[in-house]
Every structure is written in structure tokens, then in C-alpha cells.
Design brief:
The protein is α/β, with parallel strands linked by helices. It has a single domain, classed as P-loop containing nucleotide triphosphate hydrolases (Rossmann fold, 3-Layer(aba) Sandwich). 47% of the residues lie in helices and 18% in strands. The chain is built from ten helices and nine strands. The protein has helices at 3-9, 16-27, 43-51, 64-69, 109-126, 155-164, 182-198, 215-227, 266-276, 278-327; strands at residues 29-36, 73-83, 86-96, 141-146, 170-174, 230-231, 238-241, 244-251, 254-257. The chain has a six-stranded mixed beta sheet, with helices on both faces. A three-stranded antiparallel beta sheet has the order 7-8-9, with no helix packed on it. α9 packs across α10. The protein is globular and about 105 Å long.
């Protein structure tokens, strides 16, 4: 068959993925990451290490007395990152003051309320006039930082994760894992997973590999799944080690390399967040968590309408009785 015959049989819709790709790159991408955990667990440092940026340069560090006095506050930092012509608008939502007070009862409520407010704003924008330019500020992923110093999950961890599990993709992270030995990390991970199962907590579940994925991708996917909860370290310090400039933490006994998979799960977490599962996190947010919120809103709205109609009927009936008595 000649080229002219092939051209006649070629319709052209095979180029659709290229068209979508060009349009997406031109528009750019948005991603909102929430970090939840007690102060001092290295949340800011880890985020800066993940995206090679400095989101917290203007932040004021509070002393112990100020931490006890403050309430939980939500702060959002936005940075635009460009890599090889692809633009990403990254929103990082921090929960300052979480877990720092003496009485932490309901300290996670403002976190839950913030997520709901973003869902509600998106719902209103969807039914608004300017649907073409909707700003998606919904939280796509929540990195939940677990202290390395306890035996497992604390009661506050359980309550917070339970309150957020149906609203956001939770990824548990063991913070400052360089303070633990290799065996301690393994035991802590096993205990955390056991407690997650015991309390029936829902964390982000990696999707199964497609049948057409190659062996290397399947191997990486298995490594990611085995790494949960991710035991991580972060550092803004760049040091020279054997002629290599790397992000690391310096100690009297040696150097802990941030991006060394033998030292921490940092690389696995970054690969999962950015290179392999960012779109799936966004799809889960839209298709599962947002749809769940929207369904609940519609149910409440319909119930309110039914009650409203019932009350109006009763009001009209009472009014008719009163009018009849006055006339009689």
C-alpha cells in the first residue's frame, strides 16, 4: 500500500493527545498541598526541599510561650515554578499552631473547615457565570507529619486523620527520620500501618498499574507502596561531598544525604508527588472527595427545601384558621 493510500485512510484523531498536551502546557497546572503536624517537625524545610524553593523566607519563628498562646491558623503560600517550559502554580497550605497547645481538642476543626470552604467556593464558581476561569484552590494532598519520638500514632493523629480522611488524600510522613536507626524506622512504619488498620483510617491508596506499563514502572510503583508511611528528612543546606554538591544534614558522625534512598524516603515521596501521581491526586480530589461534598450539599439542600415547604404549608393552614375565626 503506497503513502497516498495510507494518507486517505488516515483520519487524524491520533494527534488528539498532542493537542491536549499543547493546550495543557500553555494553560499551566495548579496543585495545592497541605502540611499538617506539630511545630518543629520540619514541615517547612521538607516543602522547600521537595520543590527547590523558599516559601517561608518571611516567616516569624515563635518561641515556646508564643506557641502555647496562639490558636491554629491557616496560612497559604503560593509560588510559580517553571521546568522545561511547563508551569506549575504551587499552593502550600500550612497549619500553624496545630498540636502546640495544652488542650488540643478539636484543634483539627479549622483544618477540616478550611478544606470544606475550598469545596464550597469551587461549587459556587461551577454554577457561576465565569466558569471558564475557575480558580481551583481545593486541597489535592495532605502530608500528615507524624512525630518520630512517639511509639506510633498519638490520639490527636487518629482524630485528625479520621476527620480529614473523606475530604482529602492523606499521605502519612514520619518526620525527621534521621533521628532513628534503620531498625527503628522499620518498626515505626510497621506500627503506624498497624494502627491505621486498627482504627480503620483511610489514607491515599496508590492506583494499580495498567496492564501495558513496563517492568521498570511496575518496580518503581512497588517501591512507592512499600515506602508508606514515608520516613523523610529535609535540608536547605547544600554541602560538598566528594566533589558533589548535595542537600544534606551535617552531624559530627557523618553526613545524611536528603536524596539518598538509603538514608530516607525523600526521593520516593518527591517522585510520587510530582513525577508519577500528581494527576491522580487531583483526579481523586475531584472525582471522589469533591463529589462526596457536593452530594452531601445537595442532600442537605433538598432536605431544607422539604422542611421549608412543610413549614409554609403549616403556616398557611394556621393563617386560614385564624382568618376563619376572625370572620366568624
Amino acid at each position: 500500500m503506497g503513502n497516498s493510500d495510507q494518507d486517505r485512510e488516515y483520519v487524524g484523531f491520533a494527534t488528539l493527545p498532542n493537542q491536549v498536551h499543547r493546550k495543557s502546557v500553555k494553560k499551566g497546572f495548579e496543585f495545592t498541598l497541605m502540611v499538617v503536624g506539630e511545630s518543629g517537625l520540619g514541615k517547612s524545610t521538607l516543602v522547600n526541599s521537595l520543590f527547590l524553593t523558599d516559601l517561608y523566607k518571611d516567616r516569624k519563628v515563635l518561641n515556646a510561650e508564643e506557641r502555647l498562646a496562639q490558636t491554629v491558623g491557616i496560612t497559604k503560600n503560593t509560588v510559580c515554578i517553571e521546568e522545561k517550559g511547563v508551569k506549575l502554580k504551587l499552593n502550600v497550605v500550612d497549619t500553624q499552631g496545630y498540636g502546640d497547645t495544652i488542650n488540643n481538642t478539636d484543634s483539627y476543626k479549622c483544618v477540616s473547615d478550611y478544606i470544606d470552604r475550598q469545596f464550597e467556593q469551587y461549587r459556587r464558581d461551577e454554577i457561576g457565570l465565569d466558569r471558564k476561569n475557575i480558580q481551583d484552590n481545593r486541597v489535592h494532598c495532605c502530608l500528615y507529619f507524624i512525630s518520630p519520638f512517639g511509639h506510633g500514632l498519638q490520639p490527636l493523629d487518629v482524630e485528625c486523620m479520621r476527620a480529614l480522611q473523606d475530604k482529602v488524600n492523606i499521605i502519612p510522613v514520619v518526620a525527621k527520620s534521621d533521628g532513628l536507626t534503620y531498625d527503628e524506622v522499620k518498626k515505626k512504619k510497621s506500627r503506624i500501618l498497624s494502627e491505621i488498620d486498627k482504627y480503620r483510617l483511610k489514607i491515599y491508596q496508590f492506583p494499580d498499574c495498567d496492564s501495558d506499563e513496563d517492568e521498570e514502572f511496575r518496580r518503581q510503583d512497588m517501591e512507592l507502596k512499600r515506602s508508606v508511611p514515608f520516613a523523610v528528612i529535609g535540608s536547605n543546606m547544600v554541602v560538598d561531598v566528594n566533589g558533589r554538591r548535595i542537600r544534606a544534614r551535617l552531624y559530627p558522625w557523618g553526613v545524611v544525604e536528603v536524596e539518598n534512598p538509603y538514608h530516607s524516603d525523600f526521593v520516593h515521596l518527591r517522585n510520587m508527588l510530582v513525577r508519577t501521581h500528581m494527576q491522580d491526586l487531583k483526579d481523586m480530589t475531584h472525582d471522589t472527595h469533591y463529589e462526596s461534598y457536593r452530594a452531601q450539599w445537595l442532600c442537605k439542600s433538598q432536605c431544607t427545601d422539604v422542611v421549608g415547604r412543610h413549614m409554609r404549608k403549616r403556616f398557611v393552614l394556621v393563617l386560614m384558621i385564624l382568618v376563619k375565626k376572625i370572620v366568624d
